[in-house]
Design brief:
alpha/beta, six-stranded parallel beta sheet, four-stranded mixed beta sheet, disordered N terminus, 52% helix, 10 strands
């Protein structure tokens, strides 16, 4: 693993950004703040119009957005959404890309899909890197995302100034797909901790222990990471405003399960976590924040 500090480049790439959801619109705003010439595309017009007011060009299709861009970046929900934007139909991004362009998939998608998309990019004379992120909306807004990157080193270096505008740290992990694999493992580890914390607080509550007091105590211990401590506090407070939703984590755990099978590992603990998230979905809590697991555990 080669952990490289992100630094700016003298060159200023022309950037296209595809997918302006909660994360994407904040990431795109950081690119505008950094002075990049930015073209954006989104299925619904609202987020694109807000960025247009700040100087972005709005494209009618992904293909139009990609034309003339030296770096094309997407932040999309899953394999299906990524496929629809990058390769499906005459308006897909790959139709419009220039030979030599560097493509970046920053959504949390499956390693298998990343490798398929990379192969499709090669047929168009482009190179793909997978660069999913650690961090949620606050980190995206502050430009403090962490990137897990797989792909050719030259392509990573070409993308470095763009990624630098959105986060200070880039972990270069090797071949294409390594970023996606690492991101799924990171999310799986956090998901397992969230499921355990929700269950611990539910057991405490049933025993007459105040979940708020317990979450405060746990936050002082070295066994509780800052992210988990914050999640426990939100669970105890009943705060499930959507930052990182149960539906998204369940999707990630599904991809992680497939990855574990691919490398002939069972992933038993992750499967248990996936069951906890599926139970929350079955209660209708899929659009709630991951902290909504506490409600499903009660």
């Amino acid at each position: 693993m080669n952990d490289l500090p992100v630094s700016a480049s003298a060159a200023t790439p022309r950037v296209a950004f595809l997918g302006l959801g909660a994360m994407g619109q904040r990431m795109a705003a950081r690119l505008l703040d950094a002075g990049f010439a930015l073209t954006v595309w989104n299925r619904s017009p609202g987020p694109a119009e807000a960025l247009a007011e700040r100087g972005a060009t709005v494209a009618a299709t992904p293909a139009d957005a990609a034309r003339g861009a030296t770096v094309v970046l997407s932040m999309l929900t899953d394999d299906e959404a990524s496929g629809a934007v990058w390769i499906d139909g005459p308006d897909a991004a790959l139709v419009g890309i220039n030979p030599g362009a560097v493509l970046i998939e920053s959504g949390t998608v499956s390693p298998a899909w990343v490798r398929r998309l990379a192969a499709a990019a090669v047929t168009r004379g482009a190179s793909l890197i997978d660069a999913p992120v650690a961090g949620s909306r606050p980190q995206a807004e502050a430009g403090q995302l962490v990137f897990f990157v797989g792909g050719d080193e030259w392509a990573i270096e070409a993308a470095r100034p763009v990624l630098a505008a959105m986060g200070p740290t880039l972990h270069s992990l090797g071949a294409i797909g390594r970023g996606a694999e690492t991101k799924l493992l990171v999310n799986g580890l956090f998901a397992a901790q969230l499921a355990a914390m929700a269950e611990a607080l539910a057991i405490a509550e049933a025993a007459g222990i105040d979940p708020t007091a317990l979450s405060a105590l746990l936050a002082t211990l070295p066994t509780t990471s800052p992210a988990l401590a914050n999640a426990a506090r939100m669970m105890a407070a009943g705060d499930a405003r959507p930052l990182f939703t149960i539906d998204l984590v369940a999707k990630d755990l599904g991809y992680l399960g497939a990855f574990a099978v691919e490398v002939a590992r069972g992933g038993t603990t992750f499967a248990t976590a996936r069951a906890a998230f599926a139970a929350a979905q079955s209660r209708g809590d899929g659009t709630r924040n991951v902290t909504g697991l506490f409600r499903a555990s009660r």
